[in-house]
Specification:
By secondary structure, the chain is of the alpha/beta class. Helices cover about 40% and strands about 10% of the residues. It has helices at about 15-20, 45-55, 70-85, 95-100, 120-130, 140-145, 165-170, 180-195, 205-210, 220-230, 240-245, 250-260, 265-275, 275-280, 315-330, 340-344; strands spanning about 10-15, 30-35, 40, 60-65, 155, 170-175, 235-240. The strands form 2 sheets. The protein has a 4-stranded parallel beta sheet with strand order 5-4-6-7, with helices on both faces. The chain has a 3-stranded antiparallel beta sheet with strand order 1-2-3, with no helix packed on it. Strand 2 and strand 3 form a beta hairpin. It starts with 9 loop residues before the first strand and ends with a helix. Bound molecules: 3'-phosphate-adenosine-5'-phosphate sulfate.
Length: about 350
């Protein structure tokens, strides 16, 4: 009998052949598809999603939600700095970004054979210190999120439909969307970069899997469109990575107003400098465990390019045509303003 999540989604397991076909063979509990939308996640996701469905959000939480590789870490550092470090003098800022801003969707990604199905050591260490007596099987990052002092800057790649139905009435959410072509390049590099995934697919094959909603984190469009549909909710701020690149001060002003952080222009300028691509890159990777080492030193890094339009260096003319058609079809009848995606 198929399992059903508290959100009502039905869990379907991918066969070994399906997993192999998308290049992911390294998850201890395989890969699942959550219907009706068909979200593709590692096999441990259902357990964590049911916990998240009952999660105790706090009124002063800020939840950053994105489809992966859309500028999440940038937004995490921006908001964490605005809330906890506006004078750039908080020693906690030296802790790695992903540890001080817990990702409630990360536990499922630790189910790697290379990791022995466990969180990497930096997470384990903090878990041992902050969460004595807690069961790591219930989610190391979920317990770390529980232990995090308020106000918490949380991150999630899960779509609204998998979250508690009233999440927007309980917390402020900042959603960031990015040109899917740049997202696809960035995500491909991410899976290739971190050797724990043992990811075996080639670029064009991978792009097709994204378009066919077959690979991890997909489908892309329902994720973005659902958030877009909620953009007028007073607790949701919907931003585009491309707008942040074009005029960061303008977008910081919007975030300042939305969060009620009341930072001066001077403080916002400090935040902009502190969270620029070069500044973040110079402070190092957002996760530093050796198991996340690159395959070799010439491999790309997490802070890879941080630009718009890098897809032009990677898409063949045929792939560009196919992707544009996919974008066009998915925007038909929608008022989602993705003009930037098509303009580049
Ligand atoms: S993740 O793993 O899904 O949370 O990744 P995410 O942080 O969403 O996205 C990673 C991409 O964002 C780029 N990045 C930045 N761009 C501009 N400014 C800043 N400060 C910044 N920080 C991270 C990062 O380089 C990834 O994009 P690509 O295109 O791969 O460079």
């Amino acid at each position: 009998m198929s399992k059903q999540l508290l959100s009502g989604h039905v869990v379907e397991e991918l066969t070994k052949e399906e997993q192999k076909a998308i290049g992911f063979n390294n998850f201890v509990h395989g890969i699942v598809r959550l219907k009706p939308e068909g979200w593709v996640y590692p096999g441990t996701a259902p357990t964590f999603l049911d916990r998240i469905y009952n999660m105790e959000f706090r009124p002063d939480d800020v939840l950053i939600t994105t489809f992966p590789k859309s500028g999440t870490s940038w937004m995490q550092e921006i908001i964490w700095t605005m809330v906890h470090n506006p004078k750039l003098d908080n020693p906690k800022a030296q802790e790695s970004l992903w540890l001080r801003s817990p990702d409630i969707s990360l536990d499922m990604m630790f189910d790697s054979k290379t990791l022995g199905g466990k969180a990497p050591e930096s997470y384990q260490k903090k878990f041992r210190e902050q969460c004595p007596g807690k069961n790591e099987k219930e989610g190391v990052t979920l317990h770390l999120a529980d232990a995090e002092p308020s106000p918490r800057i949380l991150k999630s790649h899960y779509p609204f439909t998998l979250m508690p139905k009233d999440v927007l009435d309980r917390v402020k959410v900042v959603y960031v969307a990015r040109n899917p072509k740049d997202m696809a390049i960035s995500l491909f590099n991410n899976f290739k970069m971190f050797k724990v995934f043992e990811f075996e697919s080639e670029k064009e094959e991978y792009f097709k899997d994204i378009m066919n909603n077959k690979t991890l984190y997909c489908p892309y469009w329902p994720h973005v469109k659902e958030a877009w549909g909620k953009r007028h909710h007073p607790n949701l701020l919907f931003l585009f990575y491309e707008d942040m690149k074009a005029d960061i001060m303008k977008e910081l002003g919007r975030i300042n107003e939305f969060l009620g952080t009341g930072l001066s222009q001077e403080s916002l300028e400090n935040v902009a400098r502190h969270t620029s691509f070069s500044a973040m890159k110079s402070r190092g990777e957002p996760i530093t465990d050796p198991v996340f080492d690159k395959k070799d030193d010439n491999e790309v890094r997490f802070f890879r390019k941080g630009t718009t339009g890098d897809w032009k260096n990677h898409f063949s003319p045929e792939m560009q045509k196919e992707f544009d058609q996919w974008i066009k079809e998915n925007l038909a009848g929608s008022d989602l303003s993705l003009s930037w995606a098509l303009a580049e």
